[in-house]
Amino acid sequence: MSMSMSSALRLALALAGLVAVAGCGRSVTSSSDVADKESNLEAWVAEVDKRPPPPLDPLPVMQQFESFEYAAQGLRDPFSRAFRDVGGSGPRPDANRPKQELENFPLDSLDMVGTIGSGRGLTALIKAPDKMTYKVRPGSYLGQNDGRVTSVSEDRVDLVELVTDGAGGWLERPASIALEDQ
Questions:
Q1: What is the mean pLDDT of residues 37-52?
Q2: How many Cβ atoms sit within 10 Å of the Cβ of residue 23?
Q3: Which of 9, 19, 49, 125 is 20 to 30 Å from 170 at the Cα level?
Q4: Measured distance CA(127)–CA(149) in Å, rounded
């Protein structure tokens, strides 16, 4: 029987593959080897358990605080009804007063363009964003914060606005509109 060259080559490759696969395989250990390894592991765990634990870090030193006694017997109670009631004394906007035309515009959008008259009869001319010019005298209102005109001079209009104080009350805030340089 004659073997062809390709058959011999196939047989040699198959034999080489079988040897390679057999060499990569895991070696078989006996049950006595496994038992020795387990007993060594148990002995090591037992030895580690017998060791004393490492020392703990010391507890931090607690800082001593100085005690303070709050003695407020003679002071006003901040939780009393006087601080919570909105109906207290002080400035308030007049809800029944009819609004004037210049109260529709923010104060910073109004410009003083001149005056008419003299002395106590001095009247300021205020130009609004609607391009209309309005006459303003002491006692007039303008701006969106209930701004009441307190005085008119040749170069400015002084007023007092009412703004909330954040606690239910109102504060008076001075403001003015100066004559524009044209």
A1: 89
A2: 7
A3: 125
A4: 15
